[in-house]
Amino acid sequence: MAEESGEEYLFKIVLIGDSAVGKSNLLSRFARDEFDHNSKATIGVEFQTQVLEVDGKEVKAQVWDTAGQERFRAVTSAYYRGAVGALIVYDITRRTTFDSVKRWLDELNTHCDTAVTRMLVGNKRDLESIREVRTEEGTELAEEEGMFFIETSALDSTNVSKAFEIVIRDIYEKVS
Ligand code: GDP
Ligand code: MG
């Protein structure tokens, strides 16, 4: 949803990508500046809302996290409904998660129109020594698919706010 009421904007943004790539930790880092070392499949929260200021306007980013349904490839259409932004996350240390990006894009495209702002996110860049996906591969795929691209670390906070802020600003520029 991209709703404007007075000076308020509310943007729904979804997190997608394979299991254990760090989606929930990216959200907890962004929304609460927290990191969880123990992987929990479910955090039990559908979404978290973060308020930001863009060009002096209040923008609410409602960021949706899966409750682990991606394990069963059963992320529902309700999850995608009304989304105006998506972060497609992979883990730079596991190539299979990068290979899955195309499938996630297909799923996104079947549920949302192409105007959705999309950001490809290569997470866990703190684990450089066991990297399996080169930065250039991410750059290339993002260019091919017309997405933004960034590498992040939810562990050490690198680029986490930036990833969300780029998406939010792009959405804002489309609707304002
Ligand atoms: P999700 O299944 O995609 O939501 O992934 P989680 O957020 O649950 O994270 C899966 C595992 O990866 C957990 O053990 C996290 O502690 C770990 N993790 C998440 N992000 C990072 C990161 O940026 N760096 C490192 N080293 N580990 C991470
Ligand atoms: Mg999760």
UniProtKB/TrEMBL annotation:
The keyword Mitochondrion does not apply. It is a lipid-anchor. One of its GO terms (cellular component) is plasma membrane. GO terms for molecular function: GTP binding. The keyword Membrane applies. Keywords: GTP-binding, Lipoprotein, Membrane, Nucleotide-binding, Prenylation. It is found in: Cell membrane. Signal peptide: none annotated. Its main location: membrane. Belongs to the small GTPase superfamily. Rab family. This is Ras-related protein RABA5b. It comes from Salvia divinorum (Maria pastora). The lineage of its organism: Eukaryota, Viridiplantae, Streptophyta, Embryophyta, Tracheophyta. The chain holds residues 1 to 176 of 210 of the full protein.
